[in-house]
Amino acid sequence: MSIDQLAEIAQAMVAAGKGIIAIDESNSTIKKRFDGVGIDCTEENRRAYREMLLTTPNLGEYISGAILFDETLRQKTKDGVPFTELMMKNGIIPGIKVDKGPQPLAGFPGEVVTEGLDGLRERLKEYAQLGARFAKWRAVINIGEDMPSGTAIEANSHMLARYAALCQEAGIVPMVEPEVIMDGDHDIDTCYEVTEIVLRSLFAALYDQNVMLEGTILKASMVVSGKDCPEQASVDEVAELTVRCLKAAVPANLPGIVFLSGGQSDEAATAHLNAMNNLGPLPWPLSFSYGRAMQTAALKLWSKDLVGNVGVAQQTVFARAKDNGLAALGEWVK
Ligand code: 13P
Q: Which chain regions cross the lipid bilayer (predicted)?
C-alpha cells in the first residue's frame, strides 16, 4: 500500500466531527468491567456486548473507526455478519489493538514497557486480511518519585516506533499511544513536562525508524493534574496546556491527534476536547478515541438486562458519540 493510501485512511479516521470508539479491552480488562456490573465474562457475553455497541443505529455519523481486540475482529453478529463487514457498511473503519500489554521494566521498579513485537509482522499480515485498516499500540508512562526515567521513555518510544514501521509495511495505519498515566498527586505542570519529553522522544524514534508521519495517528493523553493532586486544573487550563504541549512537540504534518479518556469523567473528557478545539486554528484535527468515556454509561444500562436494554444502551452510546463529535468541532454545548 502506498503512503497516499495510508494517508487517506489516516485522514478518514479524523474526519471533521468524527472520532474513534475504543472497544479493544483485552479479555482480562473487559472481565474487570463486566465484574463491576455483575456480568459473566464469557465469550458470548463479550460478543453480544460488542454487537450492541457496533450496531448502534447511525453510529457512523459521529464515529469514523473502532479499535477491536483480536477476538472481536474474528466475531460476527448473531445473524452471522462479520463485525468488520458490518462496520465497513456503516462507514466505520476497523482497527485492531496489537500490543500485548505492559510488563515490568527490569531494573526500574514501578516502570513498565509494552511487549508484543515478536511475531508482529505475521500478525499484522493476518489482521490486514481480516479487514483491519489501522492498529493501536499503547505505551504506559507512570509519574512518581524519580519517574519516569529516561530509560523507560526511550524503551517505550523505541517499541512504538518499531511497531509503527511494521504497520506501515503491512499497509496498516499505526496509531501510536504513549499514555502518561493520571494516577498520583503531581500537579499539572509536572504532567506537562513529562508529556512534552515523552512526545519529543516518540517523534525522534519515529523519524529514526523511517515512519511516515503522513500515515500515522497520535493517540495522546491530555495534560491534566494528577488524580490525587489537591489542586485540580480547570477545563480551560487543561485545554491550554495540552494544546501548548502538542504544538511544542508534534510535527504539523501528522494527519491528526485523538485523545484517550484515561479515567476522566464522561463530561470532563468532552468538555476538555471542546475547549481545545476552541483554541484554533490548530495544525491538526483534535478528536477522540475514548474507551471508558464512550462506554461506561452504556455498559451499566446493558448489564441490567442483556436483551431488553439494548435500545436504551445504544441511545446512550449514540449520545456520547454525538457529544464528542460536536466537541471535536468545538461546538458542544453542555
Ligand atoms: P480510555 O479512554 O478508557 O482511557 O481507553 C482508551 C484506550 O484505548 C486506552 O488504550
A: none
